[in-house]
Structures are given as C-alpha cells and as structure tokens.
Amino acid sequence: MRIAMACDHGGLHLKEDLVVFLKELGHQVEDLGCFDEEPVDYPDLGQEVAQKVSAGDVEGGILICGTGIGMSIVANKFPRVRAALVHHIYAARMAKEHNDANILVMGGRVVGSGLAREMVRTWLEADFQGGRHLHRLRKIEEIERRNLKG
Ligand code: RB5
Hints:
alpha/beta; 6 helices
C-alpha cells in the first residue's frame, strides 16, 4: 500500500519509528517530513498528506503532531478525506470498519511507539464493513458537497 506520512516537531520521533515499521511490513512510504526538531506549523505538513489522499495519489495517510488534534482538524478540511484521531486499538479498528478512515492521526506526545505500531497495523488490516456505514459515509459526502469546494 502507498502511504503518505507527515508530522510536526511534536510527532517527529513517532513518525520516524512508524516509517521504519511500515517499510518492514512491506508498504511504500512517502515521508513528507518534518525531519528535525525545529518547530514547524502542523497545517503546513498536514495539508501535504491530506492533499495526496484527497487527490487519490496515495491509498492512505498517517499524520502525527503533539496531540493529533491539529493534524486531524487540518486533514478533515479536504474533500474525500476521513481522518481519524485514535488513542487505542478499538478506535483504530472502528476507524476502518465503520468510518473507512483514509488517514490515521496520532499524538506523538500521547501514545508510545508500541501502541502506535499496533494501532497502525490494526487500521491497515481491518476492512470497511459497508452496509449501513456506507449509507452514513454517503451523508458525509453530501455534507462535503454542500460545504467544501474542490
Ligand atoms: C505543537 O507544540 C503542538 O501544538 C502541535 O504538535 C499539536 O499538538 C497541535 O494540535
């Protein structure tokens, strides 16, 4: 799977760890930064990944900032992006099964590497369940059509 990733300084170490993990799992990772601890603004990095997911250039994205909150706010401004901020395995699985989340967001100051790796694995391996959940995603698309351009 092609996965785009980005972080700000608050998510740097977790992002670096997950890049290694994803490559070990055989995924193709597009690492869009940041690459050092110099403070950066999360909207600048987050929009790079969200744009690629929105355009269908990659199949999924992972975003990490200090809490995950800023990155999820940014990503969900983009059409067709369903970004889910997760802190535990159950949410990571539901993010795919019920919400078909195409971007997983985590807080680098909130979760450790072990949990983050398992959340990523869970999200990647889960399948969207469709049915009544698809009906709800259609409603989200309708909200996008009414409120978002692009
Ligand atoms: C940066 O200090 C911090 O505000 C950022 O990483 C993120 O947590 C914002 O939501």
